[in-house]
Amino acid sequence: MQTKPWIKQLGTGVVILLLVCLPCFIFRDVLGYRVVALLLLMTVSIMAMTFEILPILILAALSALVWNFFFIPPLFTFHISSPEDILLFTMYFVIAMVNVVFMRRIRKIEQKNQEQAEKERTLTLYSTFFNSLSHELRTPIATIIGSAETLQQLKEKLAPQEQTDLLQQIESAGLQLHLQVNNILNVSRLESGLLAPKMEWCDINEIIHGTLQHHFPDQRRIHFTPNEQLPLCQTDAGLWDQIVLNVVKNALLYTQGNVYIEVAISNDLLEISITDEGPGVPDAQLETLFEKFYRLPQTQTGGTGLGLSIVKGYIEALQGSVKAQNRSDRSGLQLLMQIPVKTNYLNQLKNE
């Protein structure tokens, strides 16, 4: 059976009272029993900041009895001979109890304020998210509807190349719409804990190359040189496709420079580095990059603030870690992803 939390707190409080009372008893002639009362009140007040109401009430009563028995003359008895000491003991007991109740109320007020602040923060985040999401969804939907209507109404008048351009716009908008909806579903999967990686032997070079060819076929700002020494890795190819897609899309959205992708492996630890040539990120905001709905202040519109939070969730599902850091040798932000993997060099033997 598990010990109830308040019993543990009561035991801890008793030990703390003993540690305070022991030196006070040794130096009782120097301190005097009135000073000891103040020290015990301070001790009970400090414990009231963290303990539950029941153990702290018991400890407050216990401290009064200990003070009476060991410090108020005559010692080692609960008898109090002086009317002044009787009044002092009564005041101690009342003050200790009232102090406990007040501290409890203060803690409740602080907790309520924290919950309210967190609620307001959450509402602000969701408001920002839905405003951004409505914009992100409205644009591809409008493109699809507009291009489809143009094809339907002016099909006979449009040149073949114009029809092809409209179809490409519909396809591009459809892919963008699919990505946004997929991100929302992915966040739901991550929060529900239903995400289970499907481990299989994969060529990381092929995964990254395939992601870039499928999602960024004409993007000349992306630079990826395959690591020919890379072995096969046992991982989830689908998750890595989404990881690379979200990181690269984020880098292209918020920077105007090139994006560099590097892959390496050491001691069964797969490392993928994606670096951009943008202005970087203030050091104080590096950790918040991976929070849901977070977007850097004063950045251009676009994006829902879900991409990097999904990346972090996927990497943690693979038992790995991701870190954002500013580059020292050149301007830009680097995302370093490290994942433990099982490796197999059969692909290299086959090539040889």
From TrEMBL:
Enzyme Commission no: 2.7.13.3
Subcellular location: Membrane
Chief localization: membrane
Transmembrane annotation, as ranges: 6-27, 39-66, 86-103
Record GO cellular component, one term: plasma membrane
Recorded catalytic activity of this chain's protein: ATP + protein L-histidine = ADP + protein N-phospho-L-histidine
Keywords: ATP-binding, Kinase, Membrane, Nucleotide-binding, Phosphoprotein, Transferase, Transmembrane, Transmembrane helix, Two-component regulatory system
InterPro entries: HATPase_C_sf, HATPase_dom, His_kinase_dom, HisK_dim/P_dom, HisK_dim/P_sf, Histidine_kinase_KdpD, KdpD_sf, KdpD_TM
Membrane-related topology note: Multi-pass membrane protein
Alphabetized GO MF terms: ATP binding; phosphorelay sensor kinase activity
Domain Histidine kinase, chain residue ranges per copy: 132-343
The keyword Amino-acid biosynthesis is annotated on this UniProt entry: no
Aminoacyl-tRNA synthetase listed as a keyword: no
UniProt name for this protein: histidine kinase
Gene source species: Flavobacterium fontis
